[in-house]
Amino acid sequence: MAALLPHMVNGLALGLLFALIALGFMLIVGVMEVINLAHGSLFALGAYFALSAIDGHWLASSDLTQWWLSIPLTARYVVALVVGPLLAAAAGMILELCLRPTYGKAPLYGLLLTFGAALVIEELIRVVWGTSGQNLPVPDAVNGAFLMGGVIFSKYRFFAAVFAAAAVGAVWLFLEKTPYGAIIKAGTHDSEMVRALGYDLTRLRLLVFGFGAALAGLAGIIMVPIWGLRPHVGIDVVIPAFLIIVLGGIGSFWGAVAASLLVGLAIGITGAYAPAWSLMSMYLLLIAVVGVRARGLLGRKSVLEN
Amino acid sequence: MSNSRITRRRLMGTAAAAGAATTFMGPWKFNSALAQSDRPIKIGFTSDASGQYANSGASDRRGMMMAIAEANGAGGALGRPIEYIHIDTETTPATGSRVAERMITREECGFLIGAVSSGVANAISQVAQRYGVIYLNTNSSSPSESGENCHRVKFVWDGNGANFAQAAIKNAIDAYGSDFLLLTNDYVWGHDTSAATRALIDQYGGEVIDEILIPQGTRDFSAALTSIQQKGPSIVAAAVGGDDLVALRQQVAQLGMGSSPAWINNQQDWPDIYGLPLDNLFGVFGTTWYYGLDLPGVAEFIGRYQAMYPETSMQVPGNVFYNGYMATRELLAAVERAGTTSNIAVIKELEGHQMSAADRMQHFDAWIDPVTHQVQQTVYLATANDAPMDDNDMFKILTQSPPDAVADTAAQGACKLESYEDTPTFDA
Predict the structure, then answer these.
(1) Which residues of B touch A10 (CB under 8 A)?
(2) Cα dist. A170→A20, A23, A163, A197, B396 in Å?
(3) Cis peptide before B261, with omega less than 30 degrees from 0?
(4) Measured between alpha carbons, how far is B411 from B428 in angstroms, rounded to an integer?
(5) Measured between CB atoms, does A306 come within 8 Å of chain B?
(6) Torsion of CA B353, B152, B242, A234, to 10 degrees
(7) How many angstroms separate the Cα of A266 from the Cα of each of A259, A272, B183, B397?
């Protein structure tokens, strides 16, 4: 058990990170019934915006850049945590505007459009930031390692997990305690009723897409110091995000969170005892759960179910 | 008067017809000869533009393109201009097969060049052998490529996992201890490299205490790194590549595990490490070329690269670019020596071909092994440079080994090349 404990700790931390990745995806699927295959590219875009926000090379003059770089990294990192997701949100909103002609048509149109958008965004990243891998610096306070129970853990991984938990909590508070959150939740249940009640569905979709993209961008900023920053880093995100929302139940917030933790634990524990199966474990988990309960862990019951 | 009588009119008509036919056929034959010398030699670039090896694939292509640009500047090969076409092999063997098939049957490519993933290279080479099209595997490093997966049409341009392990293992045991843990990317290159490493560990009296398989596409190494800490080896021999290696390096650096245990990382491809923090470049690793080698021709080679690619973020070329360039250059030189693009003649020019150290900007002469079709070349061991001259100077070269000291001896027995008679003839 003592040998298993560090793997469970790592698995839970990974699960919280997956929850952050899956949240934005879940919101867009829930409200708009659009599977956003560009979610991974928005994840990468957020990280690249953050990189530019930190290194300041986009500033007009080298004097300005030097001034910016003289500001402590912690302050620049905090700015990046705000600016990166906001710019990713803007990109998401532009994408939503492009998606509008596909609403009401066969879902394949939306899928194809978001798939194309993913390719375009990835190529734009290559054009603007280059093809090589880059490094997103993090403040010294969260860098390095610490010893716990005789095992070395990464400070940054724990910071990222705590940040993810706080972000999940903030999103939940927004959804539960604000009128906008209530409208979004209503939209996940019945978007037509929301429109019938006089709410501007068009504007709602735009804001939800932007919000989902912002969460994707935020996840990217948090994850790339662990995964590395490359133009195609978003490829690693879309499949796990999709799997998690299906496992948790489409449109279910806590279902997505529970599924994320289960996936993290599955990868962490199989990584310890059957490493060759660590990536396969999340698919086996999906088959095991959905095979017994088609709506996922906490998904809504279908009218066809007894 | 008989109808068969040869009249002057009939004779004149026949002569006119014969003259017209001669005139008509003459230009055809003449144009045909012109067409042969004008017809471009078309090369298919089978390199990755997406997936795990996208970055290295781009570097590979730049090397090939520079070699072709230089050849065309000198009049092409056999007086014929050289063209190329690239289709993304997506770091996926099935895509590699489809791309190779399309390049040969639809795009009419006479030669195929390029690979980073050994799985993709193997798939491409099977298609190439079926048609008799010469294929240069520029950068994949699985020992099986010049072993059991060798083919008459395929030539392997990079050092492989067995070469780098030969260079590293004995030194590592002497320096750090004898208990090893293997970290193995779960695909052909990883398995073959770890198998070669294991054989050497046994040979030099070491012991493998465990092997952890890393599926391709792994981004979270916390489980593997925790297991390493729990098992406590003296040395970790990692056969992990591409984006997986980028993530591994990032996470090892965050844990501060770069110096203990000792790490042997087999081959480090330049595109996978360029621009990243030096902390990420822990352990000892191998390469076949470095821009900082103090050898004749290196500075001028870098100058040509920078002139052709002023916009690229990679300011200096590395081993992947170098292999792509050298392979393409030597192929075109072999075509010139053969005096033809007929595949068997070009293959015979490549087999056993000697390349001087000066020409290759390496420390020792190289040659193409006629038994395995792998280039036998200098292997360098390096580590992170703690006193770099500039931001690009990331490597400190520790040793350089001559080819015969690091030869993959197992490949000699494992490789069974198809006979010339069993290889379809093909003329580009």
Answers:
(1) 220, 222-223, 226
(2) 11, 12, 10, 27, 48
(3) yes
(4) 30
(5) no
(6) 130
(7) 10, 10, 20, 41
- What are A100-145's pLDDT values in tens digits? 999 888 989 999 999 999 999 999 998 899 888 888 999 999 998 9
Written as six digits, the tokens of B242 are: 């591409």
Location of structure tokens 């090397």 = B63
Q: How distant, in Å, are the alpha carbons of A62, B60, B75, B302, B323 from that of B378? A: 43, 19, 31, 19, 13
pLDDT of B25: 40
Q: Give domain B41-160+292-377's CATH superfamily.
A: Response regulator (3.40.50.2300)
Q: Rounded mean pLDDT of A179-196?
A: 78
Which one-letter DSSP state was computed for residue A277?
G
Q: How far apart are the first and last CA of chain A?
A: 41
Average pLDDT of each block of 10 consecutive residues along chain B (428 residues)? Answer: 51 53 39 55 95 89 98 96 97 96 97 95 98 97 93 97 90 91 93 92 95 93 93 94 88 91 91 87 94 97 97 92 98 97 97 98 98 97 92 94 93 95 94
Strand partners, B154: B135
CA–CA distances in Å: residue B28 to residues A25, B17, B25, B80? 65, 17, 5, 20
- Nearest residue to B334 via CA among B317, B355, B319, B306: B355
For residue B396, what is the enclosing H or E element?
strand B395-401
Pseudo-torsion of CA B373, B378, B384, B385, nearest 10°? -140
What's the rounded Cα separation, in Å, for the pair A170 and A125? 29
- Within 8 A of A14 by CB-CB distance, chain B residues are 220, 222
ipTM of the shown complex = 0.87
* Count of beta carbons in the 10 Å neighbourhood of residue B5: 7
Instruction: Quote the percentage of chain A above a pLDDT of 70.
Output: 97
CA B67 to chain CA mean position, Å = 14
**SS3 (DSSP) at B368:** strand
Mutate to test the interface with B, among A1, A154, A283 (most CBs of B within 10 A): A154
Of all residues in chain B, what percent are helix, strand and coil, respectively (each to 5)?
45, 20, 35
CA distance to A66, B181, B303, per residue, from B208 (Å): 51, 6, 45
Q: Note whether B250 contacts A228, CB cutoff 8 Å.
A: yes
Q: Cβ of B230 and A3 within 8 Å?
A: yes
Taking a C-beta distance cutoff of 8 angstroms, is the pair B23, B236 a contact? no
Least confident of A155-169, A195-209, A256-270, B146-160: A195-209
Question: Where in chain B are all domains bearing CATH 3.40.50.2300?
Answer: 41-160+292-377, 162-287
> Is B315's Cβ below 8 Å from some Cβ in A?
no
- Identify all chain A residues contacting B276, using CB atoms and an 8 Å cutoff: 133-135, 228
Quick check: A132 and B219 CB within 8 A?
no
Amino acid at A43: F
Q: Of the CATH numbers 3.40.50.720, 3.65.10.10, 3.40.720.10, 3.40.50.2300, which one belongs to the domain with range B162-287?
A: 3.40.50.2300
Band the pLDDT of A304: cuts 50, 70, 90.
Answer: low
Q: Give me the residues of B, 58-117, that contact A with CB < 8 A.
A: 58
Whether the full predicted model's pTM is greater than 0.90, yes or no, is no
The answer to whether the beta carbons of residues A208 and A28 sit under 8 Å apart is: yes
Identify any residues that bridge with B368 across adjacent strands, giving them in sequence order.
B375
Q: Is-cis flag, bond preceding B40, omega within 30?
A: no
> Cβ–Cβ of A227/B224 closer than 8 Å?
no
Identify the weakest region by mean pLDDT among A206-220, A241-255, B1-15, B276-290: B1-15
Residue B316 CA to residue A249 CA, distance in Å, equals: 50
